[in-house]
Amino acid sequence: MAAAAGSSVSMQSRPRVAAARLSSLNSISLGSQRSFLSFRVRPFSARLQISCAAKPETVDKVCQIVKKQLALAPETAISGESKFAALGADSLDTVEIVMGLEEEFGISVEEDSAQSIATVQDAADLIESLVEKKGA
Prior knowledge:
Elements: E1 2-3, H1 15-23, E2 27-31, E3 36-40, H2 56-69, H3 91-105, H4 111-115, H5 120-135
Antiparallel strand pairs: 1-2, 2-3
Helix pairs in contact: 2-3, 2-5
């Protein structure tokens, strides 16, 4: 892989170094005997966003359950990125939220999976996968 600035970067030998060097480039060109590929590297924000797998309806339902379980005011803004801890939930509240989700969606959440839930989106994604498995 050759960079537009004339330097060469090998991704196989030292991936971390290569990634750091690539992040400072403006464009990258890749060439082979059959084709030539060129693309521009854009600056990116430090914050990583992951597209959600869960349907918006599922996320909304989870938000409603979280508001109810935490007795939050109706005007409290909750989104998929909302963290339970930031909303004031302790470990017992999180267990109660998971129990409410199990009841609402007719699923059973394993303890290991429940411990990995930190945000509304985490919960919605887990629910979608469990509902899908249940239906299969």
